Amino acid sequence: MDNTETIAVLAALAQPTRLQAFRTLVAAEPAGIAAGELARRLEIPQNTMSAHLNTLTHAGIVIGERQGRSIIYRADLGRLRAAVVFLLRDCCGGNPDLCAPLIEDLAPCCGAQIAEKAD
């Protein structure tokens, strides 16, 4: 990931509906959500949702896959990870102790999901 790609990801998420849509897709992993269902959940018109999904797809953080007559959208967590890693690559001038609080903040949300899947 480079500056241009990271800017595209951040720009795509820098709009309330797109951010909410992306967060909804992240919560729905790994199954994904059909575009119409996503529009219904967010209470926005389907054509508006389509435009937002197009922006997220062009930024590379959402993937659409046709299943029958529907397109199922999923968050591309690998792409999100790449953007976060790019942002933090030079974190704290190479002093990992300064980055520890950030890593600790990220770990519980992911750890809780891993524990739920193990049950």
Number of helices: 6
> Given the C-alpha coordinates, what overall shape results?
elongated
What strand order characterises the main sheet?
1-3-2
Strand count: 3
Radius of gyration: 16 Å
Uncertain regions: pLDDT < 50 for 5+ in a row? 112-119
Helicity, as a percent range:
55-70%
**What series of H and E elements makes up the topology?**
HHEHHEEHH
Q: In this structure, how is the largest beta sheet organized?
A: 3 strands, antiparallel
Please report the distance between the alpha carbons of the first and last residues.
35 Å
How much of the residues is beta strand, in percent?
5-15%
- The structure class reads mainly alpha
Verbal overview:
With 119 residues, the protein is mainly alpha-helical. It contains 6 helices and 3 strands; from the N terminus they run H-H-E-H-H-E-E-H-H. The protein has a 3-stranded antiparallel beta sheet with strand order 1-3-2. A hairpin with a 2-residue loop joins strand 2 and strand 3. Helix 3 (35-42) packs across helix 4. It is elongated. Residues 112-119 have low confidence and may be disordered.
